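JOB MANIFEST
job_type = single_chain_structure
chain_count = 1
residues = 294
[input]
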Amino acid sequence: MGILNPEIACQPVVIVGAPRSGTNMLRDILTQLDDVSTWPCDEINYIWRHGNVSHISDEFVREDATPQVKKYVRGKFKTIANEHKVDVIVEKTCANSLRIDFVDEILPEAKYIFICRDGIDAVGSAKIRWTAELDIKYILEKVKFVPISDLPYYGFRYFVNRLYRIFSNNKRLAFWGPKIKGMSVILDEHSLNEVCALQWERCVNKAEKFLDVMPEGKVIKVKYEDLISDPKVEIRRLVEFVGKSVGEEELVGFISDISASSIGKGRRQLGEQEVNTLTGLIGVTLARLGYENH
């Protein structure tokens, strides 16, 4: 495993999930707890990729966590813990669902929350992000956490990505979300909805592969639909898992903005024919996760 330096003096809690599966919502709820914090931006994939910046996908392996990479990432966790004076750091980067063994090599003390959502609903939401327009505020929040030595690489990739959206026939980005292996071929051979479906499937399959063999007590699973439908029970369960407690009044405040209207929304937007097409593509995984009859 090598030397774990620096000691981060906090409990890392890594939220694992495919894009548009409720990971942001869950992070935002948990970071309302006392002595719990996170980064002041959406994701920190730039930090996780430092030292492997030219890797063609986000599917790193344990060996990619070199001593230098471990020291760098652990140092960033320590910085956030010290700056916010907290004892729990919640981290949410969807690409981590593709590389749990890599993450666990860096953070062997981490706990994991795996949140899963109906893949068809996730597709309906993800395709919107693939075609989204420029969001300057979002970019500026994230660029603060790009390692200086990696700025030229990401600057060029961002320029290419935006240029592609301007001139492509379908007005989508060249890439978005976790970069799965073979993404360039998938983009050439499949519709955007199918790309989103295969991206979702790869994320949940890779995550389950490694999380299912974790020691007892390190992983807790939750379905997005259960979290939305019965938030009091599910949030209390997750709060206890991260080692905290929550009062009834505080809990009510946490769930005040939660709405069940998103359940089935993606399926309704896509329509029956497209849902059937996507089910033919990722139906085995949907069935395994209990979504075959949604």
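[summary]
Residues 11-288 form a domain with the Rossmann fold fold (CATH 3.40.50.300).
The chain is about 50% helix and 10% strand.
exit_status = 0
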